[in-house]
Each structure stands twice: as structure tokens, then as C-alpha cells.
Amino acid sequence: MPRPPKKPEPQAESVRISTTIHIGAGSVSMLVADQRPDGQLRPLDFLEQPAPVARDIFRTGNISLGTTERIVEIVRGFQESLAELGLEPCAVTRTVGTNILSEARNHETVTNRIRVACGLDVNIIDDGEMTRLIYLKTRRRLQHLPAMRRENTLVVHVGPGNTRVLLFTNGGITRYTSYRMGAYRTREAVEGSHAEGPSLLRVIRQHALGNIEQVRLDYADVEINGMVVIGYEVQAVAEELVGGSSSCTLPKLRQFTTAASESSDVELVKRFQLDYQTAEAILPALEINLAIAEILNLDDIHIPRSEYEQGLLHDILVSGERELRGTLAEEVLRSARILANRYQSDPRHGNHVGSLCKRLFDELADIHLLDEHDELLLQVAAILHEVGTYVSPRAHHKHSEYLILNSEIFGLDRLDVTIVALVARYHRHSGPVLEHRAYANLDVRNRIRVSKLAALLRVADALERTHEQRVSEIVFRRERDRLRLRLPGLGDTAVERLAMASKGDLFEKVFGLTVTIDEDR
Predict the structure, then answer these.
(1) Could you give the CA distance from residue 214 to residue 178 in angstroms, rounded to a whole number?
(2) pTM of the prediction?
(3) Does position 297 have pLDDT exceeding 90, yes or no?
(4) Hey, what domains does the chain have and what are their CATH numbers?
């Protein structure tokens, strides 16, 4: 059983204990922290026990019964530690699972077992949240690094199953890409080669070559001035690589990686105080980072010396803070505008439709009952709703759906992107119907979200029918079955009325209100 956390000092009532449990790729961990009156989290203790989750997933496609029971045993031990602190064993602030957990065919069986045995609901971290957590880590703990002050800096995260790359230009995110190339996924893929030492590194490099080349192509148009590397495995050996600084030259990284390949897993465990799961994954993590740095012709890389897992759990607890959500939303909208620019969509039109959407969203909050995240998705859809004209003006709403569905938008997971794509599709012509596959594949709750958001977008787009930003003010008046809009300063509203006649139908179907535009008298 893991050691119990240290007894916290007596706290004022305004201080709240928060806990998070993370079922990771190679371990299960728990952070216990108190939240100060100023909102800051102070870690009280951190517990971690190994469990071969990723090895099972990438080797067999399932999490074995033995590993499942191992997870249950660890979590129960954590709960006993919480009970010794006088906390409810089930009162865990967040219980999350690594995003690769969803790749296990039996992931529902595993999470149900944890729910039955421990009384905890496990939320699997999706790709969107993982990217947000990487951004949060960069923003909170890496901005001081010299590399982050350079014009163009790549932040590279080699995870258990995927590698994520974020391009920061003058401190802001300007590009985000993801590759199906991770430390554990690669390790299991090359296991059958039985190669050892430098030969194993060559096999790893060859296996990852396609993805590495794609990284080069994706950033060939940018002069990369620095590279910051984060990840569980590489940060576990950061002290050896960077010493008293924050950077490691490529020759040193190459020498270190070669020496590590000539060591057994047992030797790596002893030398770096690792668990066996991390020791198995460390070579692919090192070699992938080395390959990316080499293909970008860099001289060195920067590695934070902070403890990766503790930082991740801390960020999971604070990721919902309002201030951080606001900053993240700005980056999401920036990413959407970059994508719109790539497809030569009129930025003035998209931004103005977005501002009209916000006005409608705020005014009608009591009838749409949507939240802040839905408002963000509506703004993104407004920015991107006409990207399909890049393919063809004819049926451009369908092309918009396709382009958005096949694009990465920083900070949004696949469900978010699907909702944005569908809302953009339904900005004109027919509304949502079950004959549309992407819409039909959503559950009822998310189909309703799409319908509500699309209804708002269609009204906003009708008000911007001329693409000349004529509507600056809206005065609302609601009647029993009618939403009346007056547009102060706009003498002739014939165009907007005609557009509303064709686009206001979905709003009436969803909210039961006919939208009419009154003369400004």
C-alpha cells in the first residue's frame, strides 16, 4: 500500500483540500493539495505506483485483468490514505485516465470496474484537453526559458501514443499538429525486431521516419529558433541532460541516447530511479525528440527540470479556472483565424458574424441554456463558416464541413471540431437532418447543441448578408411567439429581411420564435 500523505497543518475554513487521481500510461498517481484563499494550489503530497496500462494497450489492444485489478488496488490504497486525512474516500476532485485509455477495446469494462470497486467515475482525457494541458504547462512554467523568448519556438510533447507539436511565435500559439507517434506505441511496434543497442535506435528511427518527415514538411515554411521538449520520460532524466542549465546540445543528447540504448532496463531503473514501464519507453522518447531536433537543424533543445507527473496533476486541477479559460479561448480563436486565413476566408465577415453571434448568445441566454464552451464553439464556427468557398462557392457549406472536420483547431477535441463543422455546414440551406452522417452519429444532447448553435449562426449571418458590416446595434423585443429585431441607424433593411426569411426558419423550429426585422423609426 502506498504511504499516506503527510497530515496537513490545520487550515482556515477558507482553504479547501483538492485531490486528483490520474490513471496514466505507466503508473497511477494522486496529488493532494490545498487551495489557498488567493486561488493558488499548494501541494501537500504526491503518490505514484506503476501499472502497465500502455504496454497492455499497444501489445494486445486490451487492458488485462491483472492490470485492471492492479489499478483498483492502487486507487483503493490512495483512498485509504485520504481517509486517514479525514477526507471522504470518494470525494476526489477529478479522476482522469490517459487519453490512450480510449484505444483499449475494453476501456468501458475497466472504467466500470473502477466505478464499482472504488466509487469513482474516470473521465478519459481527450486529445483536446491534453493539448490544453500542454499549453497550460507551457504558459505557467516554461515561459521563463530562454527558448520561449525566441521568435519561433516549437514545444514538442512525446506522449505515450502521440506526439504533439505547438509552434509559439512571439509567445502566442500560431500552429498545432499531432502525430500518431508516441513512446509506448513505438516501443511495442519495434519490440518484434529484437534489436539492441544502437541497432534498436536505428529501428526506432526507421519506424518513426514517416512522421518525422511530416513534422519537417509541416514547419518547412518557418525558421525554427528553438525547441522545448516535455514529456514523462525525457523529464525523468532531465537532470542528467541539462545539469544546472535548461538546455542540452544535440551531440550530448545523441551520446546520452546511445549510452542508454546499451544499458538494460534494470540498469536504467537503478541509474535514474525509474519504474520498469518508464525504462521501457525512454529510448523511443529520446530518439523521437532527437530526430525532430536534427531534421529541423537545431543545435540544442531545452528540457524543463520540473517533475512531469506532479505538474500534470496540478494543471488538471486548475485547468478550469476562469482566468485560464479566457486565455485559452483567445488561443482557440487565434487558431481558428489562422485556419480561416489559410483558406482565404474573408476575415472581416467572419469576425463580424462572430460579434453578432455573441450579441445574440448573450441576449437569449435564458432560452438557449448553453454554456461558455458552447459560446466559444459558436465563435469558431462563425469565423470558419465560409472556408468552403476555397474549394468552390457552389455548395460551400458542405465544403466548409469537410475542411473543418479534417483540420486541427488548437484546444478543441474531436467532438468540438465535429460540432463546429456541423454548425458551419448549417449556416445556409437545409438545417440538421439525420440523413447527414456526422450529425446522426452524435447523441441526442449534442444534436440539440448543434441545432441551437446553428440557429443562432443563421440569424447572425442573415444580419451580415451584405458582407459590409452594416449592422452595429441590435435592439431586441420578445413577444409570445416572435423575436423582433430593430437595427438602429440602418434605414433600408430589405436585404437583411430577405436573408432572414430564408435563414430564420431553423431558429423558429428550435426556439419557437419567428424572427422579424422592424423598421428603425
Answers:
(1) 10
(2) 0.82
(3) yes
(4) 16-124 (3.30.420.40), 127-316 (3.30.420.150), 322-518 (1.10.3210.10)
